[in-house]
Amino acid sequence: MHNWMFNPDAQAAIAAIDAGRIGEPFLVRNESLWGVPWASKDPTGDWRTDRAASGGGIIIDGAYHAFYVAEAELRSRAVRVYASVSSRSGSVEDTAAIVLEHASGATTSIQRSSASRGGGAGAHEIHGTEGSIRFRQTEPAILNLVMAGISPPAGIPQTPALELYETSVGDWRPLEVAAAPWWEGIRVVFRETFDAWEAGDEAPVGLAEAGRALALVTAAYASAERHDAIEVAEVAGARQ
């Protein structure tokens, strides 16, 4: 679905990058740690921790979002993947540390875990030669509630949705972005997909984009199994 790409904050960040406001991006840091698997509404139970039902754990369930977002933010495809995974329960990995090396020479660092009981501070940052962008992060306790399918309390104070540091300015400042819940991208991608199909057009995210994401997921699993870096081209094949 690539729904993160349809969130207003992601679109505002990429627009700022395309406008040259942080220079040439060279590093993405994307970390999210929580204490429970994402809540499932499926009446058959917690399928996310069952490899036979899910096909994998935190990489295919959560880290893959960071893959396609990082390629867009760095304006460069990942060519090499290194991943290390572990598990505390179930038959799937619940913790992953992943490094992507991009064709441009840029680097992406990703951490994901559903086994960090207290939650983690989290980070989503894009660093360039002339500045940086950082995204607002959900408080760890609130993130655990969201992941457990529990509505968080209303009126929680939040920092600006997006902040920009420009070397020429020398200070962090809010970057204008439309107010929206973090799940807004899911609504948008469904709406634009259905509108495109009704008009007889291609969906905004199609098989090529899905295949690319799957190639990166496959490379991450291969790396974790071999304990070595994996060339994306080695596993991509027809998915490119």
Account of the protein in words:
By secondary structure, the chain is α+β, with helices and mostly antiparallel strands. The protein has a single domain (3-233), classed as Dihydrodipicolinate Reductase, domain 2. It is 33% helix and 23% strand. It is built from seven helices and nine strands. The chain has helices at residues 8-18, 51-54, 58-74, 140-147, 184-198, 207-226, 232-236, and strands spanning 25-33, 78-86, 95-102, 107-113, 123-128, 131-135, 162-166, 171-174, 230-231. It has a nine-stranded mixed beta sheet. Strand 3 and strand 4 form a beta hairpin. Helix 3 (58-74) packs across helix 6. The chain is globular, with a radius of gyration of 18 Å. The model has no long low-confidence stretch (mean pLDDT 89).
Fold blueprint:
Elements: H1 8-18, E1 25-33, H2 51-54, H3 58-74, E2 78-86, E3 95-102, E4 107-113, E5 123-128, E6 131-135, H4 140-147, E7 162-166, E8 171-174, H5 184-198, H6 207-226, E9 230-231, H7 232-236
Helix pairs in contact: 3-6
Uncertain residue ranges = none
In order across it, which strands form the biggest sheet?
8-7-6-5-1-4-3-2-9
The number of distinct β-strands equals 9
CATH superfamily membership, which one? Dihydrodipicolinate Reductase, domain 2
Helicity, as a percent range: 25-40%
- Assembly context of the chains: single chain
Label the CATH architecture: 2-Layer Sandwich
CATH class: Alpha Beta
Rg on CA atoms, Å: 18 Å
